What we know:
Blueprint: H1 6-19, H2 24-39, H3 47-58, H4 63-73, E1 83-91, E2 95-103, H5 106-119, E3 123-124, E4 134-143, H6 150-159, E5 164-167, E6 171-176, H7 181-190, E7 195-204, E8 208-209, H8 212-226, E9 231-236, E10 238-239, H9 242-246
Parallel strand pairs: 8-10
Antiparallel strand pairs: 1-2, 1-3, 2-9, 4-6, 4-7, 5-6
Helix pairs in contact: 2-3, 2-4, 6-7
Protein name: Probable transcriptional regulatory protein K1I37_16130
Family: Belongs to the TACO1 family.
GO molecular function, one term: DNA binding
Amino acid sequence: MSGHSKWHNIQRRKGKQDAVRGQLFTKLSRDIYLAAKEGGGNPETNFRLKVAIERAKQSNLPADNIARTIAKATGTLEGVTYEEIQYEGYAPHGVAVLIDIVTDNRNRTAADIRHIFKKRGGNLGESGSVAWMFTRTGQISCAKSQVTDAEEFMLAVIEAGADDVEESDDAFLITTSVESFRDVRGAIESMGIDYEDAELTYVPSTTVEVSGEAADEVFGLIEALEAHDDVQNVYHNADAPDDEEEA
């Protein structure tokens, strides 16, 4: 079990940005679409879809939107066809960037993303150029107020397969492998604990410290990417002081 980590700050900042996106419903719907297209429309047998629906409900996406999106993905209702793409590149100052894309027009999106990188002083890279710096990882956060016995809770999630548990003043952050993510989440649910968030994400193996104007340039590019309609998630290995993150 470890203490506070730099990548926790990175993920916390990303979460704040996600919450204020004007395109949030669109992005949540596309998550549901891809999950249903990949594994079918039943959340009881499609874990990815179950997670996507729960995240959508937490953000108050209407039930009708969810049902309609699943119907489109499974072919019972006509609609646009989307595909998943992952782009890689560098922000200014050597910061690695990994981008999850969902688009109905690959060529248009590629041109848009390339333009954003160029305009903001970054470079869109080739496949594999930065992906090796990131590990696909499960993350589950729980408020401390939900946990009555911290030691028992941490032991239970470790026994369920968690790789690590970080403890802050008000929360626990549980890290898992992709393979154990579902089991750990199930163990938390079986204890009657409501987690605040549960997702599969990408965590950088190393970070690049930025501050001042450098931080402004890096996060300017990241925020421009996040504002694009076809961008679902942006992962990076920049590390900045909290006051830089809030700017």
